[in-house]
Specification:
This protein is α/β, with parallel strands linked by helices and 523 residues long. It has helices at 13-22, 31-39, 47-51, 66-73, 79-87, 103-107, 114-119, 124-134, 148-158, 163-188, 250-263, 288-298, 300-303, 316-322, 337-342, 405-419, 444-457, 476-485, 499-509; strands at residues 2-7, 26-29, 45-46, 95-99, 140-142, 208-214, 224-229, 241-244, 270-275, 278-284, 306-310, 327-332, 350-353, 371-376, 379-384, 396-397, 426-429, 434-438, 465-469, 487-492, 512-515. Strand 9 and strand 10 form a beta hairpin.
Length: 523
């Protein structure tokens, strides 16, 4: 049995080679790896010795030879194949260990040049991997260091690898080549005539890994599965660990993502309750208990059977409060042992724990998606994600009446919430708490009226509230509706042809108005 080792990342390779040698496997390797193995005292033949040709063209050509690919591709069950190997003195290669030039890591560097990218396109490695994977019944191919130990364990216990193992390795190998080629395509097709890179390559190659099959999709007659990015962002939903509860459904996952993305936008303790992809209650508090109590007040009816997310660890008091209502999914960066004990009697509640991003609880920006993608008939819509953060210095006060310092903080809070509400969005807030949320209506007026109705049903007064509108008021009537409901301060993007009329209406009604300069449509 012979193994050919040709790697860029040499992590763990000496240990692997030493174990293979102990099992009686002959070692063949390339350049620097061969020298490393020889220095470790292992008997190894360089590829140049096997092929009779030296490495050439700065290492661009070293394994592209019949004595390599013949040894990989020959079918052992075909006598004519084996006769050809014998006639040309070609030894079989039964195990291939390859990891590719670091193209992805190289092009991820801000200062990467086109020349650097081109030189990190592997040719011989993918060719060998494809050959070995195609001939998986006779050849095992390892493309990642995480596979080494499992293969060694099976070789030691069984003396050979099973068909199941070799096929799984072949599938992983073809997946690696597919991802590698897609990364090259994405990069090269993003290069513009002036040498700059476009965020939208000429060919988009999505690369996702299936996490699980789902029982069904949005409706029982639809099939569904859950996938993650090849390299998921830290603190993103796909990194969640389910601590208890029933299997997540398609709708659970969609709503959980909406809740998690919203709660991540706050840098103080916050709670977000989501129902059908819209926040129905959002609040800040000194801790999770206060934040939850305030968020629930906004719309306790809609909160029934909702998704609840916290951006801080959940303690026992908060868990006791949440456990009093019917909740589908509960999410947080951590749960105390006492909090988890509370939910043991509610075995169906899905509890998800998500790691904080590298910078901790105030570093959620590190877990954001760079791109948003929406499927349309036989195509995709792609856009950079709506990651705009509004600050006090961005605000433009356009009314005669000036907002107070407290109102300005509530305006920023309301604006963050409105960003995660389906358009048209109208959000009433006060003291770091949503007081009424109007979502997803064709008319901004209807969204404002619905927000007022919901506040009334929850026995919440809108007097003295602030209001966020995700897009501008095209006429003064929308402003009049929210002011009639009790709002005394409004934030909106501005930009309407009738801005002056709406500002004049604000002055007439004696309310403060602030322009954000940014729209937050969410469809």
């Amino acid at each position: 049995m012979n193994a050919l080792i040709s790697i860029s990342d040499k992590s763990g390779i000496v240990e692997l080679a030493r174990s293979l040698h102990a099992l009686g496997v002959g070692l063949i390797s390339t350049g620097g790896t061969a020298r490393m193995l020889a220095e470790a005292g292992l008997p190894v033949a360089e590829v140049a010795q096997v092929t009779g040709f030296p490495e050439m063209l700065d290492g661009r050509v070293k394994t592209l030879h019949p004595k390599v690919h013949g040894g990989l591709l020959a079918r052992r069950d075909r006598p004519e194949h084996m006769a050809v190997l014998k006639a040309h003195d070609i030894a079989t290669i039964d195990l291939l260990v390859v990891n590719l030039y670091p193209f992805e890591a190289t092009t991820a560097k801000p200062d990467c040049s086109l020349e650097d990218a081109i030189e990190n396109i592997d040719i011989g490695g993918p060719a060998m991997v494809r050959s070995a994977a195609k001939n998986w019944k006779d050849v095992a191919v390892l493309t990642d260091a995480s596979q080494y130990q499992g293969v060694l364990d099976e070789l030691k216990s069984a003396g050979k690898l099973s068909d199941k193992t070799r096929f799984a390795l072949a599938v992983a190998a073809f997946n690696r080549i597919s991802n590698y080629d897609a990364a090259i395509s994405d990069y090269l097709s993003s290069i513009q005539d002036d040498g700059s890179r476009s965020p939208f390559p000429a060919q988009a190659n999505g690369r996702f890994v299936k996490l699980q099959d789902l029982r069904y999709g949005e409706n029982p007659h639809q099939q569904a599965a859950f996938y993650r990015d090849l390299h998921p962002a830290p603190g993103s939903l796909v990194t969640a660990r389910q601590l208890q509860g029933k299997e997540l459904s398609y709708n659970n996952i969609a709503d959980a993502d909406a809740a998690w993305e919203c709660v991540k936008s706050f840098d103080t303790p916050a709670c977000v309750i989501v129902k059908h992809a819209n926040p129905c209650g959002v609040a800040l508090g000194a801790g999770t208990f206060e934040a939850y109590a305030k968020a629930l007040k906004t719309d306790p009816t809609s909160a029934f059977g909702g998704i609840i997310a916290f951006n801080r660890a959940v303690d026992a008091d908060t868990a006791q409060a949440v456990a009093k209502q019917f909740v589908e999914v509960l999410m947080a960066p951590a749960f105390s042992a006492a909090a988890l004990e509370v939910f043991k009697s509610k075995a169906n509640v899905r509890i998800l724990q998500l790691d904080l991003p590298p910078g901790g609880a105030t570093d959620w920006a590190n877990g954001r998606n760079a791109m948003d993608i929406k499927r349309v008939g036989s195509g995709l819509l792609m856009q950079t994600s709506d990651n705009h953060d509004l600050t006090l210095t961005d605000l433009k006060i356009v009314s005669k009446k000036q907002p107070t310092a407290e109102q300005l903080q509530d305006l920023l809070f309301a604006w963050k919430v409105a960003k995660y509400v389906k358009s048209n969005a109208i959000v009433f807030c006060k003291d770091g708490m949503t007081m009424g949320v109007g979502a997803g209506q064709m008319s901004r007026l209807d969204s404002a009226r619905i927000a007022s109705i919901k506040a009334e049903h929850a026995s919440l007064s809108l007097q003295g509230t602030v209001v966020a509108s995700d897009a501008f008021f095209p006429f003064r009537d929308g402003l009049d509706v929210v002011v009639d409901a009790g709002a005394t301060c409004v934030i909106q993007p501005g930009g309407s042809m009738r801005d002056n009329e709406v500002i004049a209406a604000a002055d007439e009604r004696g309310v403060a108005m602030v322009f954000s300069g940014v729209r937050h449509f969410r469809h």
